[in-house]
Amino acid sequence: MTTQDLHSSLLDSLTFASARTQAEALAAGRVSAVDLLEHALARISQFDNDLNAVVVRNDEGARAAAREADAALARGERGPLLGVPITVKESFDVAGFVTTSGNPDHANNVAEQDSLAVAALRAAGAVIVGKSNVPLALADLQSYNAIYGVSNNPWDATRTPGGSSGGSAAALAAGYVALELGTDIGGSIRIPAHFNGVYGHKPTAGLVAMRGTGVPSGRLADRDLSVAGPLARTASDLELALDLLVNLEPLAAKAWKATLPPARHVQLKDFRVLVIDEWPGSARSLHEALVVERVVERLRTQGAKVSRPSELPSGLLPDLTASHRVYRSLLGSSLASPPALSKAAQKRLEALAADDDSADAAWLRAPTLRHSDWLQDNERRVALRHRWERLFETFDVVVTPVAPLPAFRHDHSEPKDARTYPVEFEDGTREVPFFDLFHWAGLPVLPGLPATSFPVGLDDNGLPVSAQAVGPYLEDRTTIAFAQLLEEVYGGFIAPPGFSAGPATGASRP
């Protein structure tokens, strides 16, 4: 084998490697940052006409950053991500790049400086390759918009990679980069991670600074409920990135510093796990059953203590239905300038009974919610966080599905809130409304709890499936460690067919 062949083989071996492994190879001098970047750019050029995951690029800027990383490595400098190529969600400001959040009204919005989160990853040595696709206004479970077009799932290009961090998850699964940066308010990290078979972490609310995300630029106040967090192909990379992303808010840093507690356990057999796979008032889908039963089998094999809601004392588990109503209320009122309701939604709003206390009613009323009503919902949110804290005296993590279905086929019909999706149940396939796909994703958002989405293999159709681990407030390391321990025993990320590390012909379309 020639020296060139050996070098090519090394780059191929790093294609689906973790960011940690890539950083170690760079630090050891086994590969240069320039070569690793060129390998990433070549894969994007090879596959992204089909996937359309990375939609904003500055190759020459990335090459300059890679050369600087190589010079730093040659001087003996080291950093957690020194020379490692990454991409970030389009809604994050990156100096010199456009930030639009998929909205044509902001097509000329060039960022003057990095967002706080991007700056932290760059300071750790990361080479910013580009930005990944999103839905319009980050408000969909699919990633498409009038500026950048449609992103496809590397497991099946007829299906969505999810949203709103859909391009992020697709870029990871396709082997472009090893680390991504996303945001999550309704599963926007965890659902794309699930649809693509990668890992995603929604941090505890307020832990990661959001300044420099979204449009219009220059906002100082964070959007309520929204968080920023990492996506990766390994659980350990989630923790690596999280450590870099905390304590970034300049004003708070003058006096306050978050020191996250260590993971509660270092062995699966010591975990006390509450498993929930059926939303109150809804039948369990076949997908939900598959995901949870697979996790339960693995946990019991490893000696973990697994419990179900039916075994709990009355009142220990918070009321999920009531919580979801509050979530929908605060979610719908979280925008300073909310979009107008569709004509169909406006009619439903006008027809609501005064005593309708459903989640759908809360969503319809949310854009015009009185501040006094918002304060009451906020009080319920804080009380709910304390309810979960009591539950976590008995359990270490709560495991649920991420969604009631795997990646679904593209559906761009309007209005969005009228869309339905085929979900399989024991008695057949039913069309499930758009907003009923968010029960599991919303569960940890309202109380601000950490949640880690982790892959658990493939379903009978060859699509990735994942579960999520929800943990106690500020105990992010516990959910990530739980996912990592399962990964160590049972494996995690699987590369999609057609995206091998060597020469390939294009995206897989099963």
UniProtKB/TrEMBL annotation:
Domain Amidase intervals: 35-479
Chain ranges passing through the membrane: none
Keyword Hydrolase: yes
Keyword Acetylation: no
Pfam families membership: Amidase (PF01425)
GO CC field: endomembrane system
Single annotated GO MF: amidase activity
EC number: 3.5.1.4
Key words of the record: Hydrolase
EC class name: hydrolase
Record's protein name: Amidase
UniProt source species: Variovorax paradoxus
